[in-house]
Amino acid sequence: MSTQPLPLDGITVVSVEQAVAAPFATRQLADLGARVVKVERPDGGDFARGYDTAARGLASHFVWCNRGKESVAVDLKEPRGRELVGRLVADADVFVQNLAHGAAARLGLDAATLCAAHPRLIAVDVSGYGPDGPYAHRRAYDMLVQCETGLVSVTGTPGQPVKSGIPAADIAAGMYAYAGVLAALVRRGTTGRGGPVEVSLFDALAEWMGHPLHHGAHGGTAPARTGLAHAVIAPYDAYPTADGGLVLLSVQNDREWRRLAERVLERPELAGDPSFATNAARVAGRTATDAAVGAALAALPADEAVRRLDAAGIACARLNSVAELVDHPQLAARDRWRPVDSPVGPLPSLLPPVGFPGSPEAPMGRIPALGEHTDSVLAELGIPAAEVGNLRAAGVIA
User: Where are the beta strands (DSSP E) in the chain?
Assistant: First the structure.
């Protein structure tokens, strides 16, 4: 069987990025074979490097979002630093930035300016709220965008709204930026021209709010916060087991309810009982429904509860901790973990979700130290070693 190259083999990406949204997007590009040159500040670099020290001294966010990249430390406030980055961009296929509102334009690194100078370049502006409008100037940290888009209003329990436990706005924007780059590369292959790509955290997460948004806009009321339960389906929740675990199950139709009653609850009389026989009745009598299911599962260890639910064809899951995800048998069985090199040695990381059978495995390249590739990248630009030394002495690079 012939081996094809990775889809982005030969593509060069330059990114002036920080935090999560843009770095997450460019890491996807690196996983597909692109060369990603990450431009960082000499005085500390991407501030996500300092979020924590959980990954053997490195920040967990940075480890997650920055494998497979080359780090070049350049001071963009210095004219010589901007000239260096301009030379990098001139040879690139893609440029990505998520600087604060207005900063890229002041530096001449906004998509419109760069694409006017380089017609084949695909340039991506990732912002908080978009380039204009009354919110354009606002800081757009993930939690704030979760609140502004209403995600927090539909997440949590009836008495307590909560934000998502992962940076949902950053991930949404990163994935749309990634998709936008791929689409623009396809268009360039047809037309020969690149062009600007625009993504905001707010627009991305507002799109992800599609179900509650349409439910509220057209039905008059937004879905209620129900914790792990479902507003219009029952039983649909997490139930404690005899060994202290939690098992989630979801009954999607009345046929499944009959199987649950007969084969898991071992209460066949509930299958046809008018108080339980239809989903509408089970939702109206949710307290009694949950009590019947809860009593049965409370008498079983979690593994036995899952075994019975699986045998009955009832959708179910364990409520795993993060530690249990690390050791999840599905990840182990499918050999999803790979060591990724870093300044502190190999760190285990998951293979990217998209695979390409018949192509090489994702490169899973090294997590770079700040400025680790400054000298080698500048050498590729033809800058003599003596000049590199002068730039470093002047604080333009690190």
Answer: 12-16, 35-40, 69-73, 94-97, 122-127, 156-157, 160-161, 195-200, 236-240, 246-250, 315-318, 337-340, 347-350
CA atoms within 13 A on the CB side of 89: 27
Dump pLDDT digits (tens) for 45-96.
999 999 999 999 999 999 999 999 999 999 999 999 999 999 999 999 999 9
C-alpha span between 29 and 124 (Å, rounded): 13
- Which phi and psi (to 5°) does residue 311 adopt? -65, -30
Name the residue among 331, 314, 325, 334 with its Cα closest to residue 256.
Answer: 314
3-state helix, strand, coil in the chain (%, to 5): 40, 15, 45
* 299-335: pLDDT as tens digits: 999 999 999 999 999 999 999 999 999 999 999 999 9
> Are the beta carbons of 153 and 52 closer than 8 angstroms?
no
Backbone angles phi, psi at 112, to 5 degrees: -60, -45
Average pLDDT of 90-103?
96
Q: What gap in Å lies between CA 229 and CA 353, rounded to an integer?
A: 28
Amino acid at 122: I
In degrees, rounded to 5, the angle at the alpha carbon of residue 230 between the alpha carbons of residues 228 and 313 is 90
- In terms of Cβ atoms closer than 10 Å to its own Cβ (0-12, 13-18, 19+), residue 69 is buried
Residue 39 φ/ψ, nearest 5 degrees: -90, 125
Q: Is the pLDDT of residue 1 over 90?
A: no
Is residue 310 flagged as an active site residue? no
Do residues 22 and 126 lie in contact, with contact meaning Cβ atoms separated by under 8 Å? yes
- Choose, from 31, 93, 170, 203, the residue flagged as catalytic: 170
Question: What's CA 184's distance to the chain center, in Å?
Answer: 21
Q: How many CB atoms lie within 10 A of CB 19?
A: 20
The pLDDT, as a whole number, for residue 2 is 57
Q: Which helix (H) or strand (E) holds 236?
A: strand 236-240
The answer to whether the CB of 337 falls within 8 A of the CB of 282 is: no
Token pair 């950053």 in the structure block, residue: 170
Read off the tokens for 241.
């087991």
Q: Which of these, 125, 96, 107, lies nearest to 14 by C-alpha position?
A: 96
Strands 156-157 and 160-161: antiparallel
d(CA 45, CA 305): 49
What lies within 8 Å, CB to CB, of 2 at 6+ separation is 358
7 closest CA partner among 126, 185, 162: 185
